[in-house]
Amino acid sequence: MTHANELTLAEARAALKSRSLSSVELTKAHLAAIERARGLNAYVAETPERALKMAGESDARLARGEGGPLEGLPLGVKDLYATKGVHTQACSHILDGFKPQYESTVTANLWRDGAVMLGKLNMDEFAMGSSNETSYYGPVASPWLPPNWSAEQARAALAGDKRGLLTPGGSSGGSASAVAARLCLAATASDTGGSIRQPAAFTGTTGIKPTYGRCSRYGMVAFASSLDQAGPIARTNRDAAIMLGSMAGHDPKDSTCHDASVPDYEAAVGRSIKGLTIGVPKEYRLDGMNAEIEKLWACGVEWMRDAGARIVDISLPNTRHALPAYYIVAPAEASSNLARYDGVRYGLREPGADITELYENTRAAGFGAEVRRRVMIGTYVLSAGYYDAYYVRAQKIRTLIKRDFETAFAAGVDAILTPATPSAAFGIGEKGAADPVEMYLNDIFTVTVNMAGLPGLVAPAGLSAEGLPLGLQVIGRPFDEETLFALGEVIEKSAGPMKLPTPWWE
Amino acid sequence: MSVDLAAVRRIARLARIAVSDAEAPHLQGEINAILAFVEELGGVDVEGVEPMTSVIPMKLPLRADVVTDGQIERLVLANAPLVEDDFFLVPKVID
């Protein structure tokens, strides 16, 4: 065997169960890989002592023939999940020094099932970004080499400002980079407009944003509460199914959390898709669309057809309104959620002559440029005189977007196949500097899914001409993640194994 | 719609974010770029459409009206930047 951290989550699970590998050995292999990969900047906090303690306890349970579904498996956790006593800052300066006194439900579910925590993963500040460049802790580099770059050249860039290296996408950039670089078996992530799926597409990994309400949001740092959902990024479709099975579940501490048992997602992996009807929405065929993306999409259609699915053309006429409407709804909710950062109760405090100045100085110093911008947009669209023109109108358009999907599902469509991103990964420092909207366009294929509350899975489907990973997205009916895992497996099997980059960064 | 510099200052004040005179024009440009991007929504026919309130239809659950925690001042104050006894400290707000 090569290094234990090269195993998939399912393979590692089997090795632990057969006792051919211990959790301590597996965890040490990951901790060593993390140490060698510090240049990627995927982790913002490493928790090796805790990891080895948890691994030792797992080994004891495994020796007794006990253990949960994730027993002894080392995972990474996005920095927006509250982990008791451990660095939790959503990669914002304003949460400096914050150590929660409680555990998020999703991470508590993982530890309940026996998983081992390796540390906290980098992300865009408060999950606002599509390239992990808004993090207070600096950008994350993708383990994929930029086209025509040598390993030496890339290592030099890693030691510098990282410009020109590829972004792993965002906001879950640390999660995607760590999973693709084998710095954890899988990771938690979160998705408000595409923050699980776009990084998965950029790094050749699998990510699923489940239906709104499938996972508890308790203990997740809030961005836009009606859109935020937890989900995993993993190296295979099966691994993603195993992860979601543990992360999901009803939680009375989140009143929007779905009150129903969690299906056996892993059992849906490999399930036949024969007879399913797959919709292909014409509105996702954009003017001036990247030819490679279009070709990949056509490949996906053929794979589904070959596997026995029926392909139908569908129309989702309000698609083009989704992104502009998102940039009203999400900032509005963010401005409300982020009002809690006041310099009084936790995190950063910048002094002021009076209480208002204390707030203003703290928030000016603590929020990065993108967060300040979105809080101000949100404040504006919720302010007196503009509320109806912007916010109420955007929520009406959201109703129309959801209705489009409902019409397609009512006509017998079981799932929808679309591209995941408009392009392959771009370089650090390449986008959005002059015009924030340029960066926002990354979410054009993913944001509709959040607006409608639906589940969406992105699976690696091939490489661009320049050798970079590209993904396809499948969108399902509410709470039908199982069909997405069945379809994800078809994409994975048809595209062939994604060969992840060898560790040039070490 | 677009915002002028006075509006940028008013929004910053509402958002409780200090904005310097040097930053304001830059922010104005960025905010106006985003407002231009969302402007097309003004042309969508939303006559008779209900605004979305819950993305997944669900009944809001009610929990029992009982005390579930308390007496955890130490935990509540654990991350506060300035504390005295069991209180958060702020600049004087009442003369």
Outline the structure in words.
The complex is a heterodimer of chains A (506) and B (95). Chain A has a domain at 4-262: Alpha-Beta Complex (Amidase signature (AS) enzymes). Chain A is 38% helix and 12% strand. With 506 residues, chain A is of the alpha/beta class. Chain A starts with 8 loop residues before the first helix and ends in an 11-residue tail after the last helix. By secondary structure, chain B is mostly helical. Chain B has a domain at 5-39. Chain B has helices at 5-14, 24-38, 73-77, and strands spanning 83-84, 87-88. Chain B has a two-stranded antiparallel ribbon with strand order 1-2. The mean pLDDT of chain B is 93. Classes of the chains: A alpha/beta (506), B mainly alpha (95). At the A-B interface, α11, α12, α13, α14 and α15 of A face α1 and α2 of B.
Low-confidence stretches of chain B: none
- Which two chains form the greatest contact, residue counts included? A-B, 73 and 52 residues
| Strand composition percent of chain B | under 5%
Question: What is the rounded distance between the termini of chain A?
Answer: 20 Å
Mean pLDDT of chain B: 93
Largest sheet of chain A: 8 strands, mixed
* Shape estimate of chain B: flat
Please work out how many helical segments of chain A DSSP would assign: 17
Rg over CA atoms of chain B: 22 Å
Overall shape of chain A: globular
Short description:
The complex is a heterodimer of chains A (506) and B (95). Chain A is 38% helix and 12% strand. With 506 residues, chain A is an alpha/beta fold.
